[in-house]
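Good morning C.,

I know you're traveling, so I'll keep this short. The sequence:
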Amino acid sequence: MAESLALKGLPKEDKLEYILNVTARCFEEVGYNQITMDSIAERAGVSKGTLTYYFHSKEGLISSLIQHHVGKLLGRLKEDIDRAETPEEKLRIGIKSYWDAFYHDPNRLKAYCDLSAQAFFNANLKVEIVRVQRATRELLVGPIGDILSGRPGFNEKTVAMKAGLIIGAIEGFVQQIILDPESFAEGDVEAGSKDIFQFLCNSFIQE
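The tokens, ready to paste straight into the viewer:
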């Protein structure tokens, strides 16, 4: 297949971003197991040879997709957190921003859960998912560490565990809302989100 007119003359960086965006849409529609290099190439309007030249394999393409999209997401989350002044405010904003990232974009959580499941059986994807998890925890480790510093039993492992628990709670609850919206139809999740954020803060950062 000849390269699409839309890609001709584009700088390499723009061309790669276009392909990654197409890949993301395909991934959201059918999931990891169903997408192929052929289907992505056809959707993007490029030859399979062009796709393979840039990304080598399906795993390479998905790894690049994770790095590209997650890098942007974590960058935005860090900007949100850095704007806050106190550790408590940084933590609340971090929790809210991470919640918003999934609650307002269910496809993002679906893709993340899909890849996380694949990571149990795919060593290359495991490397990428673990990197994402560590980088995400690190966003909350700073504020939590500042809040807990000096308290009895304080140590870095405890801080990392609390950050992981907060992140897991957010991901798990949003997943329930996406999979079983009827159970939450009578409640205003959006209006109650402030209580949820405060609950998370109090549950994991209390004395």
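Safe travels,
E.
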